Amino acid sequence: MSPPAPKPVEPGAAPPAEERTSVSRWIPAVVVLALWIVVWVFTRGDDTLALPGTSRTDLHDRLTEFQNDLLAGRSTNPLMQFTNSIADALRSAVEWLQRMIVLPNFPRPVPEVGWLGVVAIATYVGLVVANWRIALLVAGSFLSFGVFGFWQDSLDLLIITGISVLLAVVIGIPLGVMIGTSQRANQVVTPFLDFMQTMPTFVYLLPIVLFFGIGPSAAVVSTLIYALPPLIRIAGFGIREVSATTVEATDSAGQTYWQRLRKVQLPMARKTIIVGLNQTTLAALSMATLAAFVNGPGLGKPVLAGLRINDVGTAFVPGALIVVMAVMLDRTTTAASERAEKVARGGGGDVRVRRGLLIGGGIATVVAVYLSRTYVSLAEFPTYSVGDSAASAVSDAVDWFTSTFGGATEWVKDLITNQFLNRTQALLADSPWWLAFVAITVLAYVFGGVRATISTIVCLAGIWYFDLWHDAMITLNMTLVATVLVMILALVFGVWMARDRRVDLGIRPLLDAGQTIPPFVYLIPVLALFGPSRFTAITAGIVYAAPAAIKLVADGVKAVSPTTIEAGRSTGQTTWQEITKVQLPMAKGSIVLATNQGLLYVLAMTVIGGLVGAGALGYDVVYGFARSEAWGKGLAAGITIVLLGVMLDRITRAAADMRRDDGPGSRRAFNVRLPIGPPR
């Protein structure tokens, strides 16, 4: 039963007790900030633990020595032997698929299946799992990969993504069933899933390279680890959501555990599980793109090459093709989910027409595969100059824009940098480490209670231990500033969408499309506008995090009871009072959840921003990739980023639990938290 709706607040009346309690938390927070600033004035610049430039500490060098010892003993270390055998198997699988569809299979001078056969097979798969519209989308997407000159890179990326998703299904579905049918298993597995989803994508790569080397194997393993949690979490959630009455009815009929699972729970959770597959596929594509940092094959390589030389035109075309691929995979899995639901309900359209399409499409596919194996021109994709022309056009457009509007973009960058970034960074990074430690801990207690305080103390102690305190505070500052800007956008657009259905219908498709784009791609247009700087990383983080935060706020405000809103209007409330006194307070759970997601999204993007001048921990990780002698510092930076993410996650989650209700944004909503965004 839903809790009774809060009594509407009359204009000029005192806010309810719950709202006064929420407001009262800001009073001690302001006091703590004031005391922090007073002490900072007298201690500024002391004991900041700043580490100049590329300097390293003894701890960082010991971590590097640990890596060297592992690599030196790889032939005798059982763990290294085991991971090397897995790496060899994955590398062989990737190379076999490459020889099948994208690379010459010597002595054959072309792949076993040429481009025409590959396009035909992919199109037919789209027809089988969804419908003819999706088949056309798939065909157009594959043709665009070749026409723009990135056929091999595109198929390499699909190979890495496909293998990772297949392994995620093999591992994730059984684990999802386990946590969906056993509360004890759910309690054990969920903390690991939380940790895996809190860790920024970039951080996976350093330890994975140590155990699996560079190349396709590291790309598959890192992609698998990142893509696995959504499927496990959502599959388990779908199984738990099966009606208890239905389960009890099957139990009374004498069905065994396996019969109940196979005949009732899995069929009824089918749509939710396919949504989880959708999220896992998009997460896999996102991580497979980032795997270019560890020499993973795919479109990430040309994007990375363009970013490294600050050439937006070079990075734009492969970046756009990544977006095309993401949209294709998203729409295909979504349509497959919708079709599965229709078929389960006895729908699915005219059976004879569909059977004819499948038979005709199957015959055409077999013919296309045969032709692609017979004629070289149908095996090797023709060479076009469309990609080069598009890259040149984008470069020219960027040059024109920066020369025309460079003053305006510089003004925006300087305004936010000087008025927000520099001021807050001075407090966080220039405070003595012990002062920032105490102040952050007290603030965690104010907003999150004892649980958040304990987590904060542990995480801050870890950050101090790994000798990157100053860089951590700079990264924390960038994350907090970007999150504040994200939440301003989320509140403005979320409330607007919730109050105007036409706005919702206009904006939501753009937000859905934005959530399908891998984070790596966001750097390209932002780099074109603002050049390499920490502001570029922050702006990319805002663009990356805003869609999820806006949708969470919009859905939370929209879920406020219409009866409550009407009751408030009957007392003569203005629109502003209605929003601030009724809708936002009642949607506070969703707002806190949006803040939580915004923080984690922004932190992940800030780390990736190390490529474009963000500095701090992001640069430390990139430096650790580039220089073998700095591997230990890169690992320490990665662990520090994880500690920052866990600390921010625990504080916001605890804050949400202290304000939780049974509506959107409740504790239950956190248990289905996704790295790409909530299911659409």
Q: Which key features would you list for this structure?
A:
cell membrane; mainly alpha; disordered C terminus; 28 helices; 680 residues; disordered N terminus
Question: How many helical elements?
Answer: 28
Alpha carbon gap, first and last residue: 25 Å
- Gyration radius, to the nearest Å? 26 Å
Strand element count = 0
Q: Which geometry do the CA atoms define?
A: globular
Q: Helicity level, as a percent range?
A: over 70%
What is the structural class?
A: mainly alpha
Keywords: Cell membrane, Membrane, Transmembrane, Transmembrane helix, Transport
Domain ABC transmembrane type-1: 154-333, 472-652
Subcellular location: Cell membrane; Membrane
Protein name: ABC transporter permease subunit
Describe the structure.
- This protein is an all-alpha fold and 680 residues long.
- Helices cover 78% and strands 0% of the residues.
- The protein has helices spanning 17-24, 26-43, 58-72, 78-101, 115-129, 132-147, 151-181, 183-198, 205-212, 216-240, 244-252, 257-268, 270-290, 300-308, 312-344, 351-374, 386-429, 433-465, 469-499, 501-516, 519-530, 534-558, 562-570, 575-586, 588-608, 616-626, 631-658, 667-670.
- The longest helix has 44 residues, at 386-429.
- The protein is globular, with a radius of gyration of 26 Å.
- The model is unreliable at 1-15, 17-21 and 661-680 (pLDDT under 50).
- It is a multi-pass membrane protein.
